[in-house]
Fold this protein.
Amino acid sequence: MTASPPFLGFPDRLADGCMPHVVIFGAGHGTTYPGKDSSGHTLAADAIRAASQNDAALVEHWDFDLGGPLFDAKPVCCIDVGNIPTIMNDNAGNRARIETRTREALTLQAVPILLGGDCSVTIPFLTGFSDDGPVWILQIDAHIDWREEVQGERYGYSSPMRRASEMPHVAGIVQVGLRGVGSARITDIEAARRYGSHFVTAQAIHARGVESALQHIPEDARVVVTLDCDSIDPSIMPGVAARTPGGLTYTQVINLIAGLGRRARIAGFDLVELYPPADIGGLSAQAAARLLVNVIGAIVRQV
């Protein structure tokens, strides 16, 4: 399969002496559960890149989501270094590769952006910040992902926030978009509450706006955002493995990202759980690409 051109046609490196503000990379596999096939998620990063190509020539145009051009009249400061070569069921190896790539981006004093992959890739992504803490986590997701283990595996897609809560460099967690009947047992809810995680349901966002989530994040905190595509309503984002009605709207998510950029500092971002085999007419990939544009725009404006 031929890889897609880079996101928005970005280069894979900048001229000598220029440091990127943003480094994009993909990871198709993280930690796969026994007997599961996670190969559908490997298509996500390149589907997002492909969906961005129609706008590749328009990055200097006015973007009404951002209130100006993407780079705010500044030089292009974003690179796309392609996909990490992950292997299904090479769980420890995949985690090591994702963590290493994250640390490499942080060494450049850039904001790493990871395109997954199921949300097991979030665990090594967050681990990569261990020397760059403290960080808060803003999880945008339909589920709390607080399982201790599934089939004996502690690093799978049901456990990223549980593992994050054990990381010394994580100062706090805000979980936004929760709804429906997810994978959480009562014991998982109790464990998250004991830790001090802030739950903000999708209903709360619909009723009171994004400030109901942002209020829990300290001003000027460094925040890593993990965006699970199933946080968004399936009428907008059908290409997910767990469609649940009542999700966030595109506008609510971009307002959350923009508000976070004004209140705090976005230190990292991952977009996970896009499942292209379930997409309809490329709708989800297009929405994901536009969300990524908004994230980059928010990062550029906080520098």
About this structure: The chain has one domain: 7-302. The CA atoms of residues 60 and 71 lie 8 Å apart. The domain at 7-302 is CATH 3.40.800.10 (Arginase; Chain A).
